[in-house]
Structures are given as structure tokens and as C-alpha cells.
Amino acid sequence: xxxxxxxxxxxxxxxxxxxxxxxxxxxxxxxxxxxxxxxxxxxxxxxxxxxxxxxxxxxxxxxxxxxxxxxxxxxxxxxxxxxxxxxxxxxxxxxxxxx
Length: 99
Description:
By secondary structure, the chain is mainly beta. The protein has one domain (about 5-85): Folate-binding fold (2-Layer Sandwich), CATH 3.30.2270. About 10% of the residues lie in helices and about 35% in strands. The protein contains one helix and six strands; from the N terminus they run βββαβββ. It has one helix at about 35-45, and strands at about 5, 10-15, 20, 50-60, 65-70, 80-85. A four-stranded antiparallel β-sheet has the order 3-4-5-6, with no helix packed on it. A two-stranded antiparallel ribbon has the order 1-2. It starts with a strand and ends in a 16-residue tail after the last strand.
């Protein structure tokens, strides 16, 4: 079983959490201006990388807060955990971590 460290509650079993998809997906500023293809790309196309991957999780059976996890998808190793709005550790961006 995967143990995920909540930034507020500490390590808990993965059964206490719900997966929220890839982290740092920026919503288009003007969705009305997008073509159907561009809107579908925004909604459905994700990196699905093997290795280090940034994801959103919610502690649904705990504090109910959202946070980000950098996890190796091949080994399930938790590389980093950080709160929403924070930059990923070692990222070098400012603010929300978006490139």
C-alpha cells in the first residue's frame, strides 16, 4: 500500500486520498475562443510520463485539502509533497509552479 504524506496531517494510507489528475494544468484564459480540438486537448490530453510526475491529490477522508505530489510512476516513490499554490521543490519557478 502507498503511504502519502499529507502536508497538514502527515503520512496516511492511500485509501484516505482521492487522485485528482496531473498537476499544473493551466485553464485557458478564454475557453470560448478555443476550437473543439483545442478544448479536447485541454480536457483529455495529459503527459502520462514514466518516472517523475506531478499530480494533485485530496485528503478526502481526512482534512479534505488539496495538495500536489511528485511521484515516480514506475516505482511509486514519493519524491516531494507541496501545498497548492507553492512551487514544486527545486523547480525554480515562482508562485504556483506553472512553467
